[in-house]
Amino acid sequence: MSKQTIAILGGGPAALSFAAFIDTQKYDVTIYEKNKQLGRKFLVAGKGGFNLTHSEDIEQFIQRYTPADFLEDALRSFTNTDLQAWLKEIGIPTFTGSSNRIYPEKGIKPIEVLDTIVEFLKSRGIRFNFEHEWIGWDENQSLLFKNGATIKTDKVVFALGGGSWSVTGSKGEWLTYFEEKNIQTVPFEPSNCAYQVEWDNALIEKHAGAPIKNCAISCGKKTQKGEVVLTQFGLEGNAIYALSSEIRKAFLTEKVAQITIDFKPALRQKEVLEKLSSSWRTKMGDILKHDIRLSPTHIDLLKSITSKEEFHSKEKLAKLIKAFPITITGAAPIDEAISTVGGIDRSALSHYCEIQKLPNHYCIGEMVDWDAPTGGYLLQACFSMGHFLAKHF
Ligand SMILES: Cc1cc2nc3c(=O)[nH]c(=O)nc-3n(C[C@H](O)[C@H](O)[C@H](O)COP(=O)(O)OP(=O)(O)OC[C@H]3O[C@@H](n4cnc5c(N)ncnc54)[C@H](O)[C@@H]3O)c2cc1C
Predict the structure, then answer these.
(1) CB of 128 closer than 6 A to ligand 1?
(2) What's this model's pTM, rounded to 2 decimal places?
(3) Which domains does the chain have, with CATH numbers?
(4) Rounded Cα distance, 323 and 325, in Å
(5) What are the distances in angstroms from CA 73 to CA 192, 207, 352?
(6) Whose CA is nearest to atom 47 of ligand 1?
(7) Does residue 34's CB lie within 6 angstroms of at least one atom of ligand 1?
(8) Given this model, what pLDDT does residue 49 score?
């Protein structure tokens, strides 16, 4: 019996995962990538932390996604531990860092991770066609490429990525091709990005680049522990990135988002007040520094929103230390975001991500409208979606 053919459009982690797990006895699989190489955004991710996934109990893990139920079955079919086991099997051992993020073992470069996966795909007979930018369909409903090529395959898997870091090839211009076919799409919006704050000039001149470590930031119903950095633009860092979905929700109704930073998540407000009240020191700056162990940045932040009188009110300070209010007035430009939401509307897809209006056409990875914090959750979802679909075929 002759094999069915599959075209995978895009060559990022979602595509690579699908190609790694599809049954090549049954299917002839070709990846069509617009760039001259695969996985450019994967390599960009590698320049930073390169969190391949996150070490966390799967129940908790699933809850990191928005909406959690959309990806639940995919994540259960190929969990964070499954991903680590598979990577190890093909020659990429991993380790768990102090923040529970999973990295390739020390000494293994991102390009080696990518090359190892690509070698694995080659050994499975997966074919690659570079410089093939898909630009829609022709009148015969064949896939049309910018270089003039057209192809028709039994099944098509779109894995075109999100709408940020266009230098990597993920421009999201393909949204219009789906819209022309009346397939529901959602405009791209930045996620996991820096957020804008109208800082006091003197404060930010002095503290731009300063981290606020071991804090907990709240927005809406979510609280995230971690670290943020003050910048001229506003705030960046994992703790604020993880609140992206709540911040976007607030922007919709209020145009701004109110967040609070707990400078001392390990202490209750009552305990902060006790420490402030029982100190033998006389100067408030010294009490905050030595008894509460606040940094100069914490202290100047407190000063920036209190009058002289309020700065000496222990009750007022205890309250602010536990919930320092900041107004977020905007997000960084989409191209600078680590990830995007938007793309193909979830309602356009079946449980296995088949486009309802276009049978045998599937969408996986960041091109579908879901959200997750960075730190391994994005890549894990892409790998899980690829695996889930491949095992369904
Ligand atoms: C700076 C940065 C750091 C990151 N760090 C992490 C991290 O540490 N951990 C983590 O989990 N995630 C991280 N991410 C996010 C992660 O890299 C992405 O979520 C992931 O790469 C998405 O995979 P994908 O396969 O869906 O899409 P992509 O990786 O974007 O791949 C899509 C591919 O499709 C190709 N393509 C697009 N349009 C066409 C077309 N019309 N025709 C043909 N090909 C096309 C693109 O060229 C691209 O190669 C980071 C992202 C950035 C930008």
Answers:
(1) no
(2) 0.94
(3) 4-191+338-392 (3.50.50.60), 195-331 (no CATH)
(4) 6
(5) 24, 44, 9
(6) 169
(7) yes
(8) 82
